[in-house]
Structure prediction request, 488 residues.
Amino acid sequence: MPVTAHNAKSIVGEPEVVEDALRRAQGPVAEPVEASPAWLSLKQAATALQALQVQDGSIPDAAAHDAARAHVTAITAAIEELRPRFPHDDAYLAASVRDFRRWTDGGFGVPDFLDSLEAFQPQQHRIDGIRHLVVFPMYTQNGSRARHVEAVLVEVIWPEFIAQLEAGDYGNKLFVSLRFVDFTPGYDTNSAVLFPETVAMREIPAFTWGAIFQDREAARYRRVVRAAAEITKLELPDDAARMLEDQALTEKTFVMWDIIHDRTHMRGDLPFDPFMIKQRMPYFLYSLEELRCDLTAFRECVAIQQRLAVRQARAPEGEALDSAEAEMLEHAKLVQYAVIFDRIFRFAITGSRVRNYDGLGGQLLFAWLHQRGVLHWTDTSLAFEWDEVPAAVIALGAAIDELYWRSIDRPKTAHWLAAYDLMRSVLTPNPASAWARGLPDEVLAGAPKGYTDAVMDDEFPLSMFYEALEKKMKPVIESTAGITGKDA
Prediction:
């Protein structure tokens, strides 16, 4: 996707230059954007407009067009009023107004916001605390599948240690970390991402950014892990316990986890398109890919922790780590706890049992650690052998890496079968599974569709441990829909 040139009002340059421009735009006594009449009007109009739109974002009912036109007028007027508060996004906000007017003039058909999407470049402004006003017709992953007009106020999370991490061995120019400020109903859900591919547009460009709401991830992690630790009588290590009391600490932990996870999809000995776009495969393949990225983040954080701890121990007096390195060391350890606890407590029992690939990945990690004797469920209490945990987690990542490396030389369906063998070596398949019994020759000799059709919706059911835990945790997990850092 070409980077759209900024107009004369746009602010680019060093972070302090941008921050100074923002202060001038907002003024010393400016009210917060989220409390301004313009934002409240925009939010109200976008929410009202959603009720008139069908799933593809259009408004086919001509009788609703007058009302829709009034709502769009309110939206564009609010954007124009708020533009001076976002000088770094001026080109985008101007393009958004044009896209809304073109949609209105065209009779409210399927919306096309490609022009404004191409003008929105948040990855160019990764400055801690900088804000964006985002308005698009889009669906929200794990929220709504309808491409309705949504409006979101967001704030960038970009501490110095993350900037150093990204500038060093973990470069990821597409990654943007965010915090919710306010939003319309599509984000009052489980959605924790802002992805350009969700926007209604006439053609698919090359995407240049992807954003994750780490405040939501951190808030639901804290609520879920707090409850799970109490239910399972798990005695949390001191560092892990601190996360449950400190939202900002946990947000930064998730930024570090996610920036390494995200870049991993594009790296390694990959036997297939790492994002698996437009491929239909057995859902346990998606489980392994997402878990591979999480375990890579875990492994890299172990390495970062070891490297910085050695430097700190060997540094002469007065030459210890700088503040950013010290924070990186602290969060490298916290990422390890976050990966384990989020995976085994939240992922494993969140969502339905219909091809739940993230849930399956959580089950796999729990069972792997249990079977290697570093996780114990004894006398109805959960405990870990923390000194042994890193090696066990890294070993699971190595097993998946080995599967990938070998599969480069295998036919696709042979790779699928090998992946299933890895899963069933740890988890027990459904007793009715055709895959577990062995696929018949006509499927094995046929097209890949036959393989995927034979996979059960719940190919690897929950264990008795998870069946019991799910019943107790369900209300807690359900309560995290729409949660933000302010709610934790």
